[in-house]
Design a protein that fits this description.
Chain lengths: 421, 241
């Protein structure tokens, strides 16, 4: 008897780990209401550059060398379905604690109703983030989207209130798919006030085609809150490991805040052309390279930015200049990648040394005009159930009067924990 | 008796050319799943220390080369969807909010599984039959990838004679390196005339000590419009269920 028990025990121990695997499908039945979300905690330690323009703007009159920031975020997304109608939402709440104080914010990133009579057509009404464009770090053709953060391009973004439609058809032959997306993005004093001038319906249209295995979008936004804008983008695979993409955008009558030699802020209107070319390459060793060059047609020249940095530094000793320096920063000079020519490069290695779920990556964003750059090494780990960890360092480097050389933060260490539910 | 044994020996020594390998492979495909279907799968990665990670996938396929796969679990991957249209592949990540084009070798999740496992088309779509051998219980098919887009350059597939279903598949790189071994087991009746293995175990010498297993929960024939397999529809893939 004892021998039998011993034999059984050995047999059980020898059973593979998946011997008892089961799959209960009932847990995955489609429901009328579904939701998901995450909670995020992000402590951050910053080493500051006290002689930078950014420091003067952010910490006027202070002498601190470091800053600690704590931020927390919660995002909740859901969908409620009834027949051909649905309502989707994404709510986002943040809390930030930093030396200047604490702040919190709660808003809907998206909240829209959809009528989808069949798989070929749909109509959406409400707040939506469209996400147009093929670029990874920048999207010059994303005329109806908020600007992406190129240091974290995969973050969710707030949309605008709009009405959109979608008509799609598939074909045999070189034109495999055609899809038409008309949009109306109205602006009033209360509706989409941060999109542009109020009192315009802002109609736009996007025509997508999958033509000879190439994604192509043609985009037009009619004059309204902005001048007329035209865009083209494409994406295509060249073999099993290389993808190339590009965007071209023409904006007309684009207003731009420019500092005059007399330190006043003038608004000039001009037509600009922006473009982006990029590739994504995967090596046999599972290293992914993403490289992009970006021309920001509406960006500032070195001389223009030089004047701005000079003004900010002067404002440190002459407080009368502070309001105009702050205004210039807010109206364009301090936005991410406000100059003209940039390069983005990212290398990420999937699971090095056979360590599952670990992805180290290195990101470089360089300003080709002033040769300043930010370098971001990171480690991401997704091996814990429902938990994602990301450890990041960031180094802003550059000479005086350069974009990254004048950032208030010289180096930064950041840990991001996300719990998904 | 001697004559009978001789006859049996002759039968088993039939040259491979006597069997139409392509037809056999097509039959294997149809026995595994209908040409157009919807399917629920659970993928489990088991690490050497026993820790595990599970993914649940819903997928739909139409014809030879149209497929959508949608992650239902874990929460961090939920609603992530991939679309395959011939050699074109896209990945939709809900946070990013738009589908991005990926190459066929780009992995959409971590672990031992890759796109070839998640977005697998019919074997006969991706491979040609180089040769067929047979023994008493099974056929042994040597398969060669039709293009460089396919993740494994060569497959050695053992097919059960009685059921015409695969039992073991060895996957090789172009260099001849064995990348992984797939073992089909647990024949189950899924209804609608589909009787096939419900479990697929994966071993990889490249990930020593790691195991992965795919459990098939539901497979049934379903034909959808071509427009479902478009970039425009991909963000709405969860509405297909």
């Amino acid at each position: 008897m004892r021998r039998h028990i011993a034999a059984c025990t050995c047999l059980l121990a020898a059973l593979p780990a998946w011997a008892e695997e089961t799959f209960d499908l009932s847990a995955y039945e489609k429901k009328a209401f579904e939701w998901k979300g995450y909670l995020e905690l992000k402590p951050e330690h910053q080493f500051l550059r006290r002689d930078s323009a950014g420091y003067v703007l952010q910490y006027p009159g202070e002498t601190r060398r470091t800053a600690d920031r704590w931020s927390a975020a919660a995002e909740l997304s859901g969908i409620l379905r009834h027949d051909t109608l649905s309502f989707s939402f994404t709510g986002h709440a943040t809390y930030l604690d930093e030396p200047k104080g604490s702040a919190s914010d709660t808003r809907f990133y998206e909240a829209y109703a959809r009528w989808q009579p069949d798989s070929r057509a749909s109509v959406d009404l409400g707040k939506r983030a469209l996400g147009w464009g093929k670029g990874y770090a920048w999207n010059p053709v994303a005329f109806l989207d908020r600007t992406k953060d190129p240091t974290d391009p995969e973050l969710s973004r707030e949309g605008f209130v709009m009405a959109t439609g979608s008509l799609v058809r598939s074909f045999d032959g070189p034109v495999q798919t055609l899809a038409l997306t008309p949009v109306l993005l109205p602006t009033t004093a209360d509706l989409n006030p941060d999109f542009g001038a109020s009192g315009h319906p802002n109609p736009a249209v996007k025509l997508y085609g999958l033509v000879a295995d190439t994604d192509v979008d043609l985009i037009y936004t009619a004059p309204g809150s902005h001048g007329a804008r035209y865009g083209v983008n494409f994406s295509r695979n060249l073999g099993s490991s290389l993808e190339i993409h590009g965007e071209w955008a023409r904006t007309t009558d684009a207003p731009r805040a420019v500092l005059t030699p007399g330190n006043t802020l003038a608004t000039e209107t001009r037509d600009d052309t922006s473009y982006l070319l990029g590739l994504r390459y995967l090596t046999e060793r599972d290293t992914t390279f993403i490289a992009e060059i970006y021309r920001n047609g509406g960006g500032y020249t070195e001389a223009e930015v030089d004047r701005f940095f000079g003004l900010v530094h002067d404002s440190a000793s002459n407080p009368a200049l502070t309001p105009i320096a702050t205004q210039a920063a807010t109206r364009g000079y301090n936005r991410p990648n406000a100059m003209r020519n940039y390069v983005y490069f990212r290398a990420s290695q999937k699971e090095p040394f056979d360590i599952l779920y670990l992805t180290p990556a290195l990101t470089l964003i360089a300003n080709r005009d002033d040769r300043s750059y930010t370098l971001i090494p990171e480690l991401a780990y997704t091996g814990f159930d429902d938990l994602e960890l990301r450890l990041r360092l960031a180094f802003n480097r550059g000479e005086t009067a350069t974009e990254y050389g004048e950032k208030p933060v010289r180096s930064r260490l950041e840990l991001r924990l996300r719990y998904f539910f | 008796m001697k004559k009978l044994l001789l006859l049996l020996g002759w039968l088993f020594a039939l040259p491979a050319a006597a069997i139409d390998g392509t037809q056999l492979l097509q039959k294997v495909d149809r026995n595994l799943e209908p040409e157009s279907y919807e399917m629920y799968r659970k993928l489990v990665n088991i690490e050497p220390d026993g820790s595990r990670k599970e993914f649940v996938l819903y997928s739909v396929k139409k014809g030879r080369d149209k497929m959508v796969a949608l992650f239902l679990d874990p929460p961090s991957e939920r609603d992530r969807a991939t679309l395959r249209l011939g050699d074109n592949m896209w990945l939709f990540i809900p946070n990013v909010g738009k589908p991005i084009r990926i190459t066929s070798l780009q992995s959409v999740i971590g672990g031992v599984f890759n796109n070839a496992d998640i977005l697998r088309l019919d074997y006969s779509t991706e491979y040609t039959v180089d040769s067929v051998a047979e023994d008493k219980d099974s056929y042994l098919l040597s398969l060669k990838a039709r293009s460089g887009e396919v993740a494994y350059d060569r497959l050695k597939m053992r097919v059960d004679r009685k059921t015409t279903l695969p039992t073991v598949i060895e996957c090789y790189a172009a260099s001849g390196l064995l990348i992984k071994t797939l073992t089909y087991k647990d024949i189950k009746d899924f209804g609608g005339g589909i009787r096939r293995p419900a479990t697929l175990e994966t071993d990889s010498p490249l990930y020593k000590g790691y195991k992965s297993v795919m459990l098939y929960g539901q497979i049934r024939a379903r034909t959808l419009r071509d427009e479902v397999f478009t970039l425009e529809y991909l963000p709405r893939a969860k509405e297909l269920r």
